[in-house]
């Protein structure tokens, strides 16, 4: 069965196939860089990353573009207040976003920046004006005339038949149920950033940037456009209106929207005290891998309720997977067992079927845990043979190509956040748990293995004081040592 995805535009689950050959051209709305990314943002970016990884695993080539909105009302206002220019203001948050995304193993798409495409945006608006689809107001701003686009409302499934002709809205944030001519370009305001252009001085509106950058990179018609569900209206509706009225062609064919994340059952907000950036959670000692696992645990169209209990469970799940892989590196008797090879094959098939089913990540996680449970039981019973290991590892790798949590680089990924906290006046927020994890990373894997060999040698030579000392040193570095039937194993706390 091919991949099936929910298409917001048709309101149905459809088979997904690229328009041309085997290459998927997709565009995802990126962050507005006026603050640090929060876990709601990363819920959407992880969902898009899973889509991206699965498209590739299913054999597609990919041209994936994401914008960074480095100019908008809030950015201009905040920069003016801080007495710096827009670039200076956003640089820090852009860098932070890219670092945080990498910590969550979100693969980096091709990135485009709004401020680097202002001339093209102005030209696009000039063409809209030529066609009578946009107009200039007295102050030098430009608006899109939505009455000229009969398809307005087709994405958000709203009926705008009675919309007011000529009523305008000129800010990036506005009430969701009101269709009005929206700003394409805003005239300069004193003390605020503006650019010279073929349509006069000013700055672009938020919607125009995504139309211009996506079509520039991917063509007038492309396969898929993604974002969080809050972008359906007005942002994506407006992108469609601008783009399709100008080109006369269908803009994006699939529209992919991730459902909003809740925290402890409520909408995340600073005033409610339930607002968390990725950095807030890492400072508390939570690992990026646990956060990614949790964000991926609920299929993207279902509501994910973020709780600290859920985060603990996600951490335990990742530990189990990592321990299982470690266990498979043990010694097993020669031969193979039919039960284990068919378990691995079944799991591989279940993984594909789950993800083909509109990216059912919950089912995929269930499939891998069923395998881990059965294989662990088989190891306990001495039923696993040497040749069973490669197929089991292959199923685990197939899972991890999408979920990306097995590689234990958490400490390294958490280190830069501790360094940032130190330099940004937040050192008091670094929890003892985070300090522990970072100190464990002070020893490389090779160094730990070497110390463990020395510990075993000391013990074999009955030099117990020495072996105890090494053990204490490793414990202080937050390395947990376990004696198992297969010998000494270790992991980081
Ligand atoms: P922004 O930086 O506000 O432009 O948002 C970046 C991305 O995060 C967009 O795709 C938003 O739709 C998405 N987003 C914002 N808040 C949430 C949330 N609570 N849950 C899921 N996605 C969100
Ligand atoms: Zn966008």
Features:
493 residues, alpha/beta, Rossmann fold, Isoleucyl-tRNA Synthetase, Domain 1, 3 domains, five-stranded parallel beta sheet, five-stranded mixed beta sheet, 17 strands, binds adenosine monophosphate, binds zinc ion
How is this structure best described in words?
The protein is an alpha/beta fold. It has helices spanning 39-57, 73-82, 86-103, 118-130, 206-218, 232-247, 278-283, 288-295, 308-328, 338-356, 361-380, 389-403, 410-423, 432-440, 445-460, 464-476, and strands at 4-7, 12-15, 23-28, 61-68, 110-113, 134-136, 142-144, 168-169, 181-186, 203-204, 222-228, 252-258, 261-263, 266-267, 304-306, 479-484, 487-492. It has a five-stranded parallel beta sheet with strand order 5-4-3-11-12, with helices on both faces. Strand 6 (134-136) and strand 7 (142-144) form a beta hairpin. The structure holds adenosine monophosphate and zinc ion (ZN).
CATH-assigned homologous superfamily of the largest domain:
HUPs
Q: Write down the CATH class of the largest domain.
A: Alpha Beta
Counting structural domains, the number is: 3
Number of strands: 17
Cross-sheet strand order for the largest sheet: 5-4-3-11-12
Q: Please, how many helices?
A: 16
